[in-house]
Amino acid sequence: MRPNLIQTYMNNTPAVLPDKKDRNLDIEHVLSNRTFIKPLPPKGKLIEGGILNAPINVAKEFGYDAKSFVKSVKGEANDHELGKINDIGMKAGGLMIAAYLMTRKQTPLTKAMEFIGFVSFFAAMSIWPKIALQWPAQLIHGFNIRQKYEDSFGREKMFFQDPQYLAWSLYSDKKINKIGDKMGVPKDMKNRRDFIQEKMKKIAVQNNTLWMLTAGFATPVISALICNASEKPLKNYLDNLRSKKADGMLSNVSMAAEKFKDLSSMKAFEDLLSTNQNKELTPELVQKIKDILSRGFDPVTSQAVSDDLDEILNLNNKKYLINDETVSKIIGNIRDLLGENLPLNEIDEFLPDESLLKAALSKFDTQISEVDVKKALASVGTVIRKNIEKYNSIHPDKMLNEKFIINKLFNTKIADNPIAKALCLKTNSKLTQEVIKNLKSISAIFSDFKAKNAVLDEYIYLKSAAALETVIADTWNDIMQSLPKLFNITDKEIADTRYDKKMVSKLLREKIENIVSADDGLYDKIIRELRDKITLLDSKMEALNTSANSNGSYKSIVDSIYDQFGKLFEEKGIRMPNTVNRLNGSFGSAKNIQLSFVSNRLLGIRSSLYRLLNTLDFYKRIADIGTISKIHTSALHDLMPREIKEEVVEMAKEMSVEGNNSDFITKFYKTRNPNPNLQDLDNIEVVAGKVKNKYLREYVNGGKVDIPQDKNFFKEVVKLLYENQLHPKTSEIISSGSIANELSDYRRNFIREIGDFDYFFKPFHVVNSHNKDTKSFRQFLLMGMAPDQMFSTTMKEMFNTRKWLKMFGGFGAGLLGVTVLIQFFFGKMEAAKGEVND
Amino acid sequence: MISPINSVSVNFKNNDDAKSKNILYAKDTLLENNFTNRTRIGFDKFTNALTLYPAKGLKGSKNANFYEFLTMGTVPYVVGSLMLISVFNSANKFFAPLARSKAGAIGRKIALGVLFYGILKSFTKSLVTVPVKLITGVDTDVPYAKVNYELPDDINDTDITSIEYHKAYESKEFPRWDLFYKSEAKGEKRNEYYDNIAKKLGYGENLNDSDQEIKPVIRKIATRTDMAKILSSYFWAATGVAYAFQNPWEDYFNVATLKFWKFDKFKHSLKILKDSALKSAIELYRGPKNATGWAKYAGKVMIGAAALSSVLGVINAVHVKKPSKYGVDDVIDKNGRYLVN
User: Fold this and answer.
1) Residues of B numbered 107-166 whose beta carbons fall under 8 angstroms of chain A's beta carbons: which are they?
2) A808/B91 Cβ within 8 A
3) Distance from A60 to chain B by nearest Cα, in Å?
4) Which residues of A touch B65 (CB under 8 A)?
5) What ipTM was predicted for this assembly?
6) Contact residues, chain A, for B91 at CB < 8 Å
C-alpha cells in the first residue's frame, strides 16, 4: 500500500524552517483547517458551440495560435500551445502550395481554384468527422462524441481524445442520465452513472478509431467534390465581375485610360527635346524621336508617323553644310577605309590635299541639297582619279590598282559612302522651339490616344477575345454544356460515343429525328431555349454589336476616339495626314480593324448557334413533309424526280449536322446515281422523322459516282436548307423573341455568300468560269461550327467529369454509408451481474 | 516533508527479468537515437497503427489510450496520400486519348507531389535537430520505450504490458528528466548527461547542481527546436510539391518504368529521371520559360522561405542566455557610494 503523504507529513514535524516570508505561518493552524490541501475548484466546462459562435471561435483560435507561436519562439510554450504549431505549419504550408501553383496558372478562375483546393482540403478534414461520425453518433447514441471542453487553464480540448483521462465531473448527473435514457440504460440500475460513462467512453474510442481509419479515404474525395461543386458558382461570380469591369471601362474611357498612360515616357521625351533645343537634327536624334513617338503602334502606322515627322521636322528640304571641317573629314574617312588594304604612306602620297578638294567643292554653295551631294561626290572622285594617275606615272614600279580603289570608294550605297557621309555630316535643320512645341503636342495627343486604345483593347479582350474566361467564351461554354441535357442524351450514349465524332454525328441525327417527329413539345422547348440563350448572348454583347451605333455602344466610342484624334491635329494646326489616314481612313484603317475584330468574333459564334437552330428547323420541315413550302423556292419541287429528292434530303441532313468548312469549299464529295429514275416524280415518304427511301439505298449498276458538274444539286440542297421557309412552329416561337430578323439575315447571307452556284468549284473543276469570291475567312465565320462538333467536344468533357464523379462520388457515398452503418454496432456492453435489477 | 512522487511509479520487474523472459523492456528505458532504433520504432509504430491499435480501438478496449490514437494518425496520412493520387489518376484511363494524356500529366505530378511532400516533410526535420544537437548537445529526438501495464481484458489475459515509444522531450511540461540520470550504484556519475550539456552551453564544469541549472535551458531549447522543426518541415514539404509541379518531369513520365529486368529501358529511364530532376530544379528556381512577374520569383521565394525557416529555427533554438561570468557579489552597485584611493 502506498504511504499517505499527508499523514506522513502530519506525523513528522518539519525539520526545516519555512522560508523567510512564510515564517509567521502557523502550520498547525493551517493543517487543522485543512484548507490548503484542497485542490483549487475546477474552472473547466463543456463547450456547447453553435454555428452562430463559429466566427467568434475562429477569431479566438486565431488569437490562440498567434499566442502559441510567440510563446514557442520564446521557448515558453506548453504542450497544448506547441501542439498548435502543427496546425499553423500545415496551414501555412498549404497556403504556400496554393500560392505557388496560382502563379503557374493563367486565368482568374484557375488561379482562384488553387485556393479553393487549399480551403476545401481543410474543410474536408473537419467536415468528414462531423457528417460521418459526430452527427450519426448523436442520433444513434444520443451524445456528442466530439464534445469539446475548456480546461481550468482555458485550453480547448476534445473531451474523449484521451480515454484514460476523462474529466467526467464536467458532465452533470442530469446530463449523463439523459444520455443514459437515450441509450436505453435501465433507469434503476446500480452505478448507473458509471455504466453510462463506460459506455460513452467505449463508443467514443470506437468512433475515434473509425475516424482515423476513414479520414484518409474521405478527405481527398470530399475535397475534390467541394472543388467540383464550387467551380461553377465561382465561375459565374468571376464572369459577372469581368463583365462589370469591362462595361465600367467602356462607360468612362477617359478615366480608365489614365491607368494606361505612360507618363514617364512622355516626361523622358520632353527632356530629350529640351536638352536638344536649337541643336542640329542629327539622324540619330531624328530616329530617337520617331522611335519614341511610334512606340506601341503597329508597323504600318509607325511608317505613317515616320513619314509625317519627316515633313514636320522639315527633313525633306534639308540642306547639308560644306566647310573646312567637311574637307578634313573626307580625307580622314578615305584614309580609314583604304587603310584596311593599303599602307598609309602610299595613301597619303596620292590623296589630294585639302586645297585641291576645297577647290573642287568651291563650285557648290556652302549649303547643298540631296541632289548636290551626288554631284559633289563625283567631283571628289575626279580629283582622286587624277591623283592616282599622277602617282602611277611617278611610280611605274609600284603602280596602284585604280579600279580597286575607285570601286572601294564609290561603288557603295550613298548612305554607306565614306565621302557622302562626310558631306552629309552637318545639316541646316535644327530642333527649333516651334518644332519642339509641335512635337510636344503630337506626343500628348498620341499618348492619350494610345491609352484610350489600350482601354478598347482591354475591353474587347475581356468581352470577346478568343481566349479562356472571356465573357463570350463563358457564355458559349454555358450554352454548349446545356445542350446534351436539352437533347435528352443519356450518360450511356455519351460514354458510347466519346471516342469518335462520327458516332456523335449519327447519334445526333437520330436524336434530332426523334425530337422533331415526337409530339411531346420537346421540339418547342429546345427552340425556345436556344432562342433565349442566343438572346442572352446578344444582351451580354449588346454594346459590342457594331451595327448598333447608339450612344455608348462600342462602335460609337471607337468612332469618337478615332475621329477626335484627327480633329485634335486639325485644331493644333499640325499636319499628320498619313497617320490620321492610316488610323481613321476609310479602308483598311486601324479603326476598321478595331471594329471588325469584334464583329467577326460575334459572327462566328452567332453563326454556330443559328446553324443549330436552322438544322433543327430543317429536320422538322422534313418530318412534317407536308409543310414544306414551295412558294419561293424550287426546293423539292414537283418536277424533281423522287430519286433526286431523296438524294437532296439526305445530303442536306448530312451537311447540316456534319458539314465543315473544307466540305463546303469542295462542295461535298457525294456519290450519287449517274442515271437516276426520272419518271417517278412522287414526293418522298417520311416516317417518324426519317425518310423512307425508295431509291437511295438501291444498288446501282456500275456503281455510284460523284457528279461535280451537276451544279444544280448543291444549289437545291442549300436552298432547301436556307431558303425554304421556316417551319410554322419555329417561326411562331422565334417571332416572339428578338432574334427573328437575325436568323433571317443569317440565312440570307449564307445563301448569298456560300450557297450560290456561281462560284461552285472543286479542285480541277471550274464551272462557268465564274469566280465571284467571298473571302474564305468570311465563309468560315458564316459556316459556324458543325453541330456534331459542338456536341462531340462538350460530351467528351462531360463524360470525363461524370466518370470521375461517378467513381469518387460513389466511393464517397459508399464510405459514408459503411461508416454510419458500423456505428450501430458500437457501444455494445453487458452490465455486470447484480447491477441491473431483474 | 512532502517529497515528489516518483514518475516511475510502478516497477514490477527490472530489465534483467525482461531479458530472461524475452520481453523487450520491463521498465521505461532510454534508447539510443540511432538509425537502427529509429527504423525499428518507426516500423513498430506503423505496423501497430495498421493492425493492433485499430483492432483495440474498434472493439472499444478499455486500455485504448491517447498514444494509440495519435499513432493511428499515420493511417490517414498514408491512406490519404494514396487516395489523393487515386483521385487524380484512377478515372483517367476511361477518358478519350487526348484528355487522358493531359489528365495523366497532372495526375502523375500530383503523385510525385505527394511523394515529395512526404519525403521532404520527414527528412528536413533533421536540418533543425542535428545542428541543434551538435551545437548544444541536446538531442530533442532521443526516444525511450515506455512500459504500460494494462487492465487484463479477461481472467485469462496474462500479457498486460504494452510498449509505447515516446521521445524523452516529447512533453515540454513533463520531460522525462529521470531517464537521463545515471546510476551511482553502478559507479556512474549521476549528473553526467547534464554536466555535458552545461559544459557545451558554457555554464562551466563541476557544477553543484548541473541538472537543476540546465533543465530550464533544455526545456527552452527543446521547445524552440520542436517549433522550428515542425514549421520548417511544412515549408520544405510545400517546396517539394512545387518541385514536383515543374514541366520537365513530364519527360520522365513518358519513359518511366520500374521493370528493372528490362535493363536498357530501365537504365534509360533512370538517365531521364536524373535529367528531369535537374531541369525541374532549375525551372523551380528560375521560373518557367517566359515567366513574368511573380511566376519568375515564386520558386526562389519557396526555396528561400524553407531554407530560412530552418536556419532561423536553429539560430533561435541555440540562442540561449549564457550565465554571467560574475556572481551577484562581484557586481558593483551603481547607486552605492565608494571611496577611491
Assistant:
1) none
2) yes
3) 21
4) 162-164
5) 0.87
6) 800, 803-804, 807-808
SS3 A743: helix
Residue of chain B whose alpha carbon sits nearest to that of A74: B224
Q: Give the integer Cα–Cα distance in Å for A652 and A658.
A: 10
Say yes or no for a CB contact (<8 Å) between A85 and B230.
yes
Among candidates A743, A710, A723, which has minimal Cα distance to A633? A723
Under DSSP, is residue A691 helix (H, G, I), strand (E, B) or coil?
strand
Residue B163 is inside which H or E element, if any? strand B161-167
Q: How far is CA B152 from CA A198, A343, B28, B63, B162, in A?
A: 16, 113, 20, 9, 11
Please judge whether A164 and B66 are an interchain contact, meaning their C-beta atoms are less than 8 angstroms apart.
yes
Query: How many other β-carbons are positioned within 10 Å of the β-carbon of residue B111?
Result: 19
- Cα torsion angle, B236, B238, B239, B245, sign: positive
Closest CA to B37 of B141, B177, B183, B190: B141
Chain A residue at shortest CA distance from B314: A73
Tell whether B220 is within 8 A of chain A (Cβ): yes
Of B137, B301, B140, residue with least CA distance to A103: B301
Per-residue pLDDT tens digits for A198-215: 999 999 999 999 999 999
Q: Please report residues of A whose CB lies closer than 8 A to that of B302.
A: 96, 100
DSSP 3-state assignment of B199?
helix
Complete DSSP assignment for B28-75 = -EE---SHHHHHHHHHHHHHHHHTHHHHHHHHT-TT--HHHHHHTTHH
Got the DSSP string for A435-480?
HHHHHHHHHHHHHHHHHHHHHHHHHHHHHH-SSTT-HHHHHHHHHH
CB A672, CB A501: distance < 8 Å: no
Residues in A touching B62 (Cβ below 8 Å): 163, 198, 201-202
Strand ranges for B168-221 from DSSP E:
none
User: A260: which 3 cell numbers?
Assistant: 494606361
**A78, B172: Cβ pair inside 8 Å?**
yes
Q: What are the angstrom distances between the C-alpha of A804 and each of A492, A799, A817, B33, B90?
A: 14, 8, 19, 46, 8
d(CA A141, CA A134): 10
Q: Which of these, A582, A558, A498, A535, lies nearest to A740 by C-alpha position?
A: A535
Domain ranges for chain A: 45-239, 320-423, 436-596, 598-791
pLDDT block averages, 10 residues each, chain A of length 838: 58 54 66 64 81 80 93 93 93 93 88 91 92 95 93 89 91 93 90 93 96 95 93 90 88 88 85 86 85 88 89 76 81 84 81 80 78 82 85 82 81 79 78 86 90 91 81 89 93 90 94 91 93 89 68 84 88 87 84 85 90 95 78 71 92 91 74 90 89 86 81 83 90 87 89 64 46 68 91 91 91 96 90 60
What is the three-class DSSP state of A761? strand
Contact B223, B172 (CB under 8 A): yes
Q: In a 3-state reduction of DSSP, which class is residue A320?
A: strand
Chain centre distance of CA A753: 33
- DSSP string computed for A111-144: HHHHHHHHHHHHHHHHHHIIIIIIHHHHHHHSS-
Residues A261-293: tens digit of each pLDDT: 888 888 888 898 888 888 887 878 888 888 988
- Name the pTM for this structure: 0.77
**Total length of chain A:** 838
Contact B173 A78 (CB under 8 A): yes
What are the CB-based long-range contacts (under 8 Å, 24+) for A564-567? Answer: A565/A445, A565/A449
Type of residue numbered A22: D
